[in-house]
Design goal:
Layout: H1 23-40, H2 43-49, H3 53-65
Length: 68
């Protein structure tokens, strides 16, 4: 007597794509970006290195939003 093959009860949808990421796949790049931004935006160096004062003001506003 031949063995029966299992049958599928549902068919996977072919028109959708599902990507599940672990929490650290989003958190680590965000933390790295924030750390690099803080390294660039040191108050003494950011304003001296910026040729345009608008960039310095923008960095100042960003630093004001980031909790210390």
């Amino acid at each position: 007597m031949p063995a029966r093959t299992p049958t599928r009860t549902h068919r996977p949808a072919t028109d959708t794509v599902e990507a599940r990421l672990p929490w650290w796949a989003v958190a680590l790049p965000a933390l790295a970006f924030a750390a690099l931004l803080l390294l660039i935006a040191e108050p003494g160096q950011a304003h001296a290195a910026a040729g345009d004062p608008a960039i310095g003001r923008l960095l100042g506003h960003i630093l004001g939003l980031v909790p210390a």
